[in-house]
Amino acid sequence: MSRFYRFYHYLAKVLFFIFTRRVIVRGSQHIPKHGAAILVSNHISYSDPATIIGYVKRHVYFMTKAEMFDGGFMDWVITRAGAFPVRRGEADRTAFRRALQLLSQGQCIGLYPEGTRSTTRTLQQARAGVVLLAKQSGAPIIPIAITGMERVFLGKFPWFGRPTVTITIGEPQTLEQLAQSNLPIAHQRDYLAEQIMAQVAALLPQAYGGTNVSQLSYE
């Protein structure tokens, strides 16, 4: 971790100590101590990155919507945390190249395959960019499920109604493990994007759109 990131790591823990009842982390052993990895998570709160910064013991470089890099204070903060901009709704080659560069250096990338925050807590359809990134980098995909974050930092007095936040980290997966060989090539990318979200769904309770991976099928 860089000096700035280490500071944010401990600051996040202090904030969660104040604003939550407790934070439960399951599956932390699935985060490799070294080497490239793509961390994919559901997205239910603007503060989701702080959860991973505080409780994953690796420097995670987040793909962050370009609107956050506006020259203001938050731009300064997230840039020093290693975040880099991605233009949503288009093929952002600059962001893609930056992600590939970091993965080639053995770093961890954090992204939200849904592309935007869910306002209903439930999972949305994944974008295909994560599939291309995993294919070109060869990095494993690590699913992460977060619950409770949608009730944190709501502006209420912190000592009342503090939620419990749970972070569940799944086993690393490769595209080869998720692929279905009898599918036409034209459908493989969409199928893989769906299966990546299925890995996240398998870690979530039903109220958050959770389901067993074996129950999902591609049509």
TrEMBL record:
Instruction: Answer yes or no on keyword Transferase.
Output: yes
Query: Which stretches are transmembrane?
Result: none
Q: Which domain of life is it from?
A: Bacteria
Known InterPro entries for this protein?
Plipid/glycerol_acylTrfase (IPR002123)
> CDD domains, per this entry?
LPLAT_AGPAT-like
Which parts of the sequence belong to the Phospholipid/glycerol acyltransferase domain?
Answer: 37-149
> Which Gene Ontology BP annotations are present?
phosphatidic acid biosynthetic process
Keyword annotations from UniProtKB, A to Z: Acyltransferase, Transferase
Could you give a GO molecular-function term held by this entry?
1-acylglycerol-3-phosphate O-acyltransferase activity
Task: Enumerate the SMART domains for this protein.
Answer: PlsC
Classification via Pfam families? Acyltransferase
One cellular-component annotation, GO: plasma membrane
The name this protein goes by in its record: Phospholipid/glycerol acyltransferase
- Which species is this UniProt entry from? Herpetosiphon aurantiacus (strain ATCC 23779 / DSM 785 / 114-95)
